[in-house]
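Second opinion, please. Please look over this fold, written as tokens:

===
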Amino acid sequence: MNEYMINLDKVSRTYKEKNGTDFVALNQISLNVKKGTIHGLIGPNGAGKSTTMKILSTLLLPSSGTVTMKGIELQSNLNAVRQDINFIYGGERDLYWRLTARENLEYFSALYSLKGVEQKEKIKELLELVQLTDVANKKVETYSKGMKQRLQIARGLLNNPRILLLDEPTIGLDRQSAEEFKNIIRHLAANGTTILFTSHYLEEVEDLSDEITIISRGEIVASGTAQELRSNIGKELYVHAVVENVVNRKQAITLFSRYFGDELSVEKYVERTGNVIEMKVSLSNKKLDDVKLSSFVQNSKIREWKIGSPSLDEIYRYYTTV
């Protein structure tokens, strides 16, 4: 039995530009998303995220390659695939503002042939899930952005999708609304829904995702857990320090090298006033000698220091910066 709910095998998508030349939006990408997991898809604008999501939502077909969803080959089985997927946009699209939340869900559920008792029970269940029961009979135009986005989730779950695609789902939401949204997504995944989402909020991506894929210029450049991505770039640890009584970059680097060896690279260098240098260096060795570190701190007049691993933002820039 295939453990993956989404498979892309060497998928490409080419567009014809106005001058007649071909523009390659996706270039033979391969991607697997495991059943019941949350998978983040990130990349710069124009990298191919939206094209990928449109293909998976059946709005576009690939120019070449194979897409399989829930074990069904997409290109020749569009109707069968559509029964078990849904697509939720960020922002405030796809809702009728002059209707109430309940009326919106009644309208969209009818498109899935839900009627009578089955329709009422499903709408009741979803309103409770997204915590809109108390305002279900108020017009959507009176809702906050967070409430509208929660209603979007309810709309996207009317057909009980086994695969849920989310495009920038928390865009424009305040922190509290975004956290409420993420809790709903976690709940869905815990109950077996497979979720693929795009976002420019890298902190959110790392917080939510079981695995992360980075796409750049139409190609997948990295994929795996956050920890695997950190390990792959070979910069497992860094030291960030504000050091007194050093007068220039060379002296600061010499100071670090004395304790950590020559296998370091400068990630950040800022001169402050009064012979104070702020340095951030990445270390190729994955273990820091406690004795060396203690000696460094005691003898270097450290004002501030910390040890850590590269953030997802640093990993993202590593893979997407040419």
